[in-house]
Amino acid sequence: MIKHGLGRGLDSLLRSYDEEVIKEKPITSETNKTVTASNVDGDVQKIETSKIYANPNQPRKTFDKESLNELTESIRLHGLIQPIVVNKMNDGYMIIAGERRYRACVNCGLKEIDCIVKNYTEKQVAEISIIENLQREDLNPVEMAKGIKRLMDEYGLTQEKVSERLGKSRSAIANTLRILSLYPEVLELVEKGKVSFGHAKILASIDDYATQLLLAKKIAKDKLTVRDLEKEVNSILGGKKKAKKVILPSDELQDFISDLQRKLGTKVSVIGNDKKGRIYIDYYSQDDLDRIYDIVLRK
């Protein structure tokens, strides 16, 4: 399975949020001290472990016991080398990054640990939690796509903004999101690792449900490579005797379809290329059709 490593480090990510805090508006602490560039960066402080708690909305809920035990022994021998990052709250300090290190410190019986204290908004903390999860977890393509979609839907981030947050190109973000347009049975095969991300991108270009599912099952059963799948698609869509090469939409056209799909809130597909083709918009009821009509013709 493809590992979707993300190139941007957490330190760089946090710095971008620090800059936003300064640009958006001054934030005051309990002592009415204005947050400036110097104190937004976060000072390293010794904080009692009893005053620190995990983010209840942290997407990562389970931790490998063996890995946690190894980290516990390392901290017991060498101490906590890298401070955890926390957000100052009314009832203590909520972990932004480093929950595994915090748990290991508690296992060691430490009463206080080094922390970098931040002053982020609730919205920023939620975004950081999701992004850190996307950066550090070995997610399958579907989990990755759903995480990105959640950032866009719940926090109003555009593809450009998400690409900045994750340190990935906009086309990479669009390609990842595109697999969510697959039919549920096909998406399930991707989630189980029986269909790779490379396969999924090609299958997403096929609008016909039966063909899409047939090819997905064949990939899982016969272990088709991406090249094999391309040949199968060309054979099915072009005919066995006169195989017609399938030209996939350009990144720009696929980006447009992704934007349109997000705007309309329904499945949108395209057949053709940048010069000529057709766009299909799915609707599932009269109300759904009326809703799309209002969006398209809204002045």
What does this 3D model show about the protein?
- Helix 3 (65-78) packs across helix 4 and helix 7 (159-166) packs across helix 8.
- Strand 3 (84-89) and strand 4 (92-97) form a beta hairpin.
- This protein has helices at residues 10-24, 37-40, 65-78, 99-107, 122-136, 141-155, 159-166, 170-178, 184-191, 197-203, 209-222, 226-238, 251-264, 286-297, and strands at 44-48, 52-53, 84-89, 92-97, 112-118, 268-272, 277-281.
- It has 14 helices and seven strands.
- The model is unreliable at 1-9, 21-40 and 240-246 (pLDDT under 50).
- The chain is elongated, with a radius of gyration of 24 Å.
- Strands 1-5-3-4-2 form a five-stranded mixed sheet. A two-stranded antiparallel ribbon has the order 6-7.
- Helices cover 53% and strands 12% of the residues.
- With 299 residues, the chain is of the alpha/beta class.
- 24% of the residues are buried.
- Count of beta strands: 7
Please report the number of helical segments.
Answer: 14
Low-confidence region ranges: 1-9, 21-40, 240-246
Mean pLDDT: 78
The geometry reads as elongated
Question: Strands across the major sheet, in which order?
Answer: 1-5-3-4-2
**Could you give the order of the helices and strands?**
HHEEHEEHEHHHHHHHHHEEH
Helix content: 40-55%
In whole angstroms, the N-to-C terminal distance is 45 Å
Amount of beta strand: 5-15%
Notable traits:
7 strands, two-stranded antiparallel sheet, 14 helices, 53% helix
